[in-house]
Specification:
It is built from seven helices and nine strands. It has 182 residues and is an alpha/beta fold. Strand 5 and strand 6 form a beta hairpin. Bound molecules: guanosine-5'-monophosphate.
Length: 182
């Protein structure tokens, strides 16, 4: 029997999801991060098995075919997905945080109607672009692609259970912790 709930956190690339999730997990040690699989290259600071499982396209497609993915999506010219087994294992000891985009969020909601879906908005579009560039780890052609996608992603917020604004990562983390408190 699972003990925790699935908490989906979405928001455009550069909105600060990683920072917000980090603060939440620092404050609530029982919260676990669902480690996604992806075919994109690791960034310099990323560790395989911690931030993502970095896999080949062939391996990813194998995982889809064998039903190993709870959800997945192809975006930013790569595959991203949630391996089912690690999410279910983590749910046995508490709630699990999924940092996934709207196509995946919709699949989770269908598979697990009790999941809580939270969408993080930037304070403004200008601020989002500034943060995305300021991060310094995303090539320029990727930035344009991600900004275009950000507009579509933000349009999806209406069917999420909750929409929060990341005006301050600390405040935003507190707001989400209150939402998932019970
Ligand atoms: P990044 O390449 O910046 O790490 O992530 C790009 C986007 O992919 C983010 O919006 C993130 O939420 C999303 N993403 C990361 N992992 C998954 C996943 O397992 N499934 C889905 N559907 N999206 C994911």
């Amino acid at each position: 029997m699972s003990k925790g709930k699935l908490v989906v956190i979405s928001g455009a690339s550069g909105v600060g999801k990683g920072t917000v999730l980090g603060i939440m997990m620092n404050k609530r040690k029982d919260l676990k991060f669902s480690v996604s699989a992806t075919t994109r290259d690791p960034r310099p600071s990323e560790i395989n098995g911690v931030h993502y499982y970095f896999v080949t396209k062939e391996r990813f497609e194998e995982m889809i075919a064998s039903g190993e993915m709870l959800e997945y999506s192809a975006h930013n010219a790569n595959y991203y997905g949630t391996p089912r087994a690690q999410a279910e294992e983590k749910m046995r000891s508490g709630s699990v945080l999924l940092d996934i985009e709207p196509n995946g969020a919709a699949q989770v909601k269908k598979a697990a109607p009790d999941a809580v879906l939270v969408f993080i908005m930037p304070p403004s579009m200008e601020e989002l672009e500034k943060r995305l560039r300021g991060r310094g780890d995303t090539p320029e052609d990727q930035i344009a692609m991600r900004l275009k996608r950000a507009v579509w992603e933000m349009d999806q917020r209406h069917w999420y259970d909750h929409v929060v604004v990341n005006d301050s990562a600390e405040r935003c983390a507190e707001e989400i912790l209150k939402i998932i408190a019970d």
